[in-house]
Amino acid sequence: MSASAAGDTKGAPPVEDHAERKSRAQPSPALAEIASNSRPERAYSPIVLSGSMRLVELLMLLAAGMLIHELYVAPQWGRSLGYYLAMPAMALTAIAAMQSLGLYATTSLRAPLRDGPRIAAAWSFVFIVALVVLFFFRLDESVSRVWLLGWYVAGLALLAGERLALSAIVRSLSRQGKLDRRAVIVGGGALAEPVLRALATQDDGDLLILGLFDDRANERSPDVVAGYPKLGNIDDLIEFARHTRIDVIIFALPISAEARILQMLRKLWVLPIDIRLAAHANKLRFSPRSYSYIGSVPVIDVLDKPIADWDVVVKFVFDKVVGAICLILAAPMMALVALAVKLDSPGPILFKQRRHGFNNECIEVYKFRSMYADRLDHGAVKQVTRNDPRVTRVGRFIRKTSLDELPQLFNVVFKGNLSLVGPRPHAIVARAADISYEEVVDGYFARHRVKPGITGWAQINGWRGETDTPEKIQKRVECDLYYIENWSILLDIYILAVTPFALIKSENAY
């Protein structure tokens, strides 16, 4: 879904008003029960988990080899470059061998005893290769056999102990639902049944199917399919995804239902969720490389989460490290601003304002108080305009220079509900020309697919400050969607570097 699509309201479905939303049928009891019992915390990524495990085992094996070398070989024969080249090569070969045997899959992490022989075989293979190399190149006299045997035994013991400990951790995380990939099916009836049965029989046990959503009448879409309940329609699914964690939406519809699929995607693309089209029941067949797989079920990737797996880790570390550095560097300026706010007018130095956060959740962000205490607008119902009488003398300056936003570094570093870079969090009741933002811009909530930020692509491109016209908020959302679809850590670094220069142009900030 392109950024321009969100800004173009031509052909958009009519926006529901408040009365229409209230008159919609209540969600099913099963939907309400799942939502009330679900924990909102995110799951751990299996990709990050297995990647971290590879790194831990690589360092563990390497450390064991070097420790035995330092304790036995170095005191008697000194340190040789050959050992320091051989140890990383052998450790990397061991990781590659275990990867090729599928020993980093989640199923393997849950069953260390079952896969123990394959782990031992992979580690043994490394030493067999090493012995063959030593024999053919006549290097056997230059390498300590005690070191080889000691490293082999120590490596086996460490791998066994580490896998047993990790399996206990994985089982604990599984019981808490933090390794489940929570899925819902869109579509029902005869087409959904074989997809559901195929997904339910997966061996990996990571997929948790919550139920089905379908916008068709009950006679065409029964209340229960293959034992799974129908939870509601597509509008119910959007609201459901705001209150509980869903990791993947799987369309169980034929490719020929293009118009129906596109109509649903027009609503669902605003969610930070992977969307897949099951190819299980489709007669059209592509090259195997055209599919990804959920277990053994082939699916076509329709939409991906904007930031997932290792990208989440990279952005998290970047926010915490760079945010902490920025907070330390900004501390003297923040102290001066706090003093100026206190001396300028009576009232608190900081105030909290409710804003839209990731996945449309409500968050509170910190700001320096820039208004008189008896005129504070915690809900940002009325936008600040030029020469606004609610704004103090100091407030005008810190708003113009965006110094009032500096306390949001606390949100980044300590609360974690803001990022350094991302779409700016808008007020819950924000309006442009007395029209709510979601009514102005089709697909407005798609900007909440990532965590909001202190600065962003829109701000460095001149779209900061007052959004008093539909055109301004439309341009801002287009910039936000461009950022989401083109995110990289280098883009974040660029935006941070350019932000101070963009603040100089403050004609729209009051």
- Which band does the percent of strand residues land in? 5-15%
Basic shape:
flat
Helix amount, in percent? 40-55%
Low-confidence blocks of residues: 1-25
Provide structural commentary.
- Helices cover about 50% and strands about 10% of the residues.
- The protein is α/β, with parallel strands linked by helices.
- It folds into 3 domains: about 5-40 and about 180-305, Rossmann fold (3-Layer(aba) Sandwich); about 45-175, no CATH class; about 310-500, no CATH class.
- The chain starts with a helix and ends in an 8-residue tail after the last helix.
- Mean pLDDT is about 85; it is low at about 1-25.
Give the arrangement of secondary structure elements.
Blueprint: H1 3-7, H2 18-23, H3 29-37, H4 46-77, H5 81-100, H6 106-110, H7 112-136, H8 145-175, E1 181-186, H9 192-200, E2 207-213, E3 224-225, E4 228-232, H10 234-243, E5 248-251, H11 258-268, E6 274-278, E7 292-294, E8 297-303, H12 310-344, E9 350-356, E10 362-368, H13 393-400, H14 408-415, E11 419-421, E12 431-432, E13 435-436, H15 437-440, E14 453-455, H16 457-460, H17 470-485, H18 489-502
Parallel strand pairs: 1-2, 1-5, 2-4, 5-6, 11-14
Antiparallel strand pairs: 3-4, 6-8, 7-8, 9-10, 12-13
